[in-house]
Amino acid sequence: MRALRTGLSALFPLLLGVALWGQAPCPDGIAPDAQGYVDSFDPGDFDTTPPFYAAVRCWWWICRVRRSYLHFPAAALPACVGKATLWLKVDSVYRSPQVEVREAYWDGTPIAWDAQPAWGPALDSGQLGEPGWVSFDVTEAVRRYVAGDIDDLAFVVKLYTEWSPVLRGMAFSEACLAVEPCVEVTVRGLSDFTVTQEFFALDRYAPLGELRVTIRATVGYRARVCYEVQPAPNPPFGADPVELEYPPGDWFTVPRCPVYTELPGFSGDPGEEDRTYRVRVDLADLGDRAAGEEFLFVIRVEAIPQ
Is residue 90 classed as helix, strand or coil in its secondary structure? Predict the structure, then answer.
């Protein structure tokens, strides 16, 4: 008996893969690799023990101000950013503060009130009414970092107005950065299929089911496809055996990775599109195989931002 097994995959640049806290809104987000807060009443200290603060209280012209800083690693960032959200787990809120997030030109090394890094533009702000997870849009800063316009991916969390005769502020204990790539690919379908000697005698093609591909994009892109096979055939196949049908009645050959061919049917424009392809293997291209050989074919779809 000879067996063909199929698989599928979706590829797009640098998918996120950093584990985070169980109930956070971004369970696959990026955790800060450095964080802490500075206090104007303790100007020489940088407190890295949670909770972290954005708070102020003033007595006449003297104000006690606390600001928090967050630095994130870059390893898990996608090559093209669609949206980036900073999430904070707020544990306490004092008198509905307006909280602001700005870029911070900070490399993650210890700082103090008297030695704070410079800030960049304001990114987002919001008024807090109660504890819980809150979000801030930091897309522009993450895009600037990916583009190489800034050297570090860091933020300062502060009050929008750092003056109040009564205590205003909030404290948070956790943070995470959720980054969505500008192109997302979802691949579904296909199943295991067994080809017997009798099948070889009666049919040239082994139908492997349907491949369903969805692409969501915020930028223009180019869709392409290839296949992988395991184990490597020895002797090699006579030709690439995997074929996809699109449009109906028109079959095209899929090359073996890392060579790609265009995946037809997608416009390449921003938005969401869904296409279905029938998949088959041309048994004549397998060459002379030994009895009992088994191959796993994996269809890989990639969308490249343009």
Answer: strand
Calculate the alpha carbon distances from 233 to 100, 185, 288 in Å. Answer: 58, 29, 11
Residue-level pLDDT at 29 = 85
Domains of the chain: 2-15+183-305 (2.60.40), 34-181 (2.60.120)
Q: What's the CA gap between 13 and 219, in Å, rounded?
A: 14
Q: What's the pLDDT at 181?
A: 86
Query: Does 227 have pLDDT greater than 70?
Result: yes
Tokens at 153, concatenated = 């991916």
Question: Which two tokens mark 233?
Answer: 């055939």
Q: Nearest to residue 106, comparing CAs of 53, 75, 77, 70?
A: 70
What three-state secondary structure class fits 146? helix
pLDDT (average), residues 153-176: 96
Do 165 and 63 meet the contact criterion of CB atoms below 8 Å apart? no
pTM beyond cutoff 0.90: no
Structure tokens at 295: 């191959």
Helix or strand holding residue 262 (H, E) = strand 261-262
- In sequence order, what are the beta bridge partners of 303? 223
